[in-house]
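Fresh eyes needed here. Have a critical look at this protein's tokenised backbone.
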Amino acid sequence: MAVTKLLRIKETSGRNPAAHLKKNLFYLCKPEKTGGGIWVGGNAGTSPEVIYATFLRNKKAFGKPGGTQAFHYTLSFPPGCGITEEVACQVAEEFCRMLLKDRHYYVYAVHNDKAHLHVHITFDSVSKEDGSKFHSPKGDWEKRIQPITDALCEKYRLPTLQYKAEDKIGRDYGQWKAGNQTGGWEDILRDDLDEGIQRANRYEDFLSFLLEEGYQIRDVLPTGDDNSSSLLRSHDLCTSLSPSYLPVGFGTPGSVRPIPVSGTGLQQ
């Protein structure tokens, strides 16, 4: 079995920020690929219309319609490994439960239109429990994903996972369709910063949003022998978040402009 990680379905520019998400869900559930819809499962419904509505309703409930919309994994099984559609569904269900702990809406679909079975999994970026966003930071593959897939391979006596470097790198859904790779954690962070700026009415609200999303905020980086390699300076991501500037125009997408202030309170 091979696991492709990770397609990050980003917000679509235009009237519908979930347009890419909708296309992804309808592709997953294609009748000609899923035995007429038999091999579709999850906790968000079994038709693309219902699943899509469930994802959108959850985002609306927590006031998070923008930013990263969902995440997508692919589990591929080599020809001749003896796996059936039923077992592939069991593997997908257990993968989702172990990874998501039933905190996110998810859908999986076994595609049997190729010589080898493969499962597509898409889950909502927004938790249905508390509205927090799912993140896949650096090292997440080794710490969280690989132990799950290794355990499932052993349980179902599937071939050992073969990991490729490009399979461990998050890719944007739109760029994946074009065959290109993109960065991972930094892009996710930029999305969250942008969403926070758009949602907040005041700078204090912006900082509160980041704290709610699980970020640590520091005024100044540690110095001396402290290891700060895992920290990211805000102005490396956006010039309007530099130490001497503060973003204004909160609540209005695309209207952020820098103004000088003394001290930002952001991790810098």
User: Anything to note?
Assistant: Confidence is low (pLDDT under 50) at residues 167-185, 221-230, 242-249, 252-268.
